[in-house]
Amino acid sequence: MKYNTLIVAACCFLGLSNDLFAQEDLSVYGYWKYHQPVADQLLYKSLSERAFSQLDKREAAVLSLTTKEQWRKRQADVRAKLARAVGPFPEKTPLNPVITGKLKKEGFSVEKLYFESRPGYHVTAAMFLPDKRQEKGPAIIFCSGHSENGFRSEAYQRLILNYVKKGFIVLAFDPIGQGERIQYQPDELKKGATGEHSYAGVQSFISGLPPANYFIWDGIRCVDYLLTRKEVDPARIGIAGRSGGGTQSAYIAAMDDRIAAAAPECYITTFDKLIRSNGPQDAEQNLMYGLAEGIDMADFLEVRAPKPALIVATTRDIFAIQGARDSYHEAKRAYKAFGKPEQIQMTEDDAGHASTPRNREAS
Question: Read out DSSP for 225-279?
Fold first, then answer.
């Protein structure tokens, strides 16, 4: 308080206007929600303390791991925990894919399509095919973040076309509640995908199944679809996505061994940093009893070690950068135990919640 008083006094002494001073917000409380000295935070802090205790137990268990055998046992344990936290998947049924149209662009073509990840449950998507590609080429599943129009947003088109121009086949699909999969009428919810996810997510949680189950299953069926395409090398399937797409890409890669490489962007942090800062995100970004099961974000990377992974982060993201660094350093220990430390990497740039040229190039 004395420091802030001195700043105000100095500004007044120097004749700086109140408007100029008001433009700069020096408060950190807006970001670090857990530390806000507000009475209505008592329940949040109580729940947070329980979460921190669960995360401390997890950290102690992970710190004791040193050998490849110990990490393999941990991986098996995490897979079982993820299976419980995500819930059972349905049986695989026919995809019944339909290509509804084709676009020809300079250097590539686009197939507009949909398939059924569950009977009568349609996933809309687009397949980007570079003109110059290998007979059996590498493919990337692209997961969109919380854009209302899904993968059609300008930011995600830039990411997709960067991959395509480098010879990658890209399958971009609409998450639930986005693009052509809007669930509610415009006047039912606020604009944007977050409401679409959380409104349905509450109903899903009450039924005992986290909405992440549906998101992950759509991604697994995307792999199934790619394997039906003669253009795709089944041994070279990767996954990437930013923000909510970073969440999906981390989840799907952790739960489908057929994915060779993963690059989740603007998502990976640690749950203790997330709880202290922006707080839990919308419905599909929370697993059923995930913290009680001892699951942290680093587990999504470690469970697939030593398969290649890249954490794509920014220093001023809504997902705390220190958590991303902590997850990277922890995951690095697992990869070292497997003798492949170079196969876990991290790129970061000084920016907000965005894809920067530097991070795009690294990805």
Answer: HHTT-TTEEEEEEEEEEETHHHHHHHHHHHH-TT--EEEEES----HHHHHHTT-
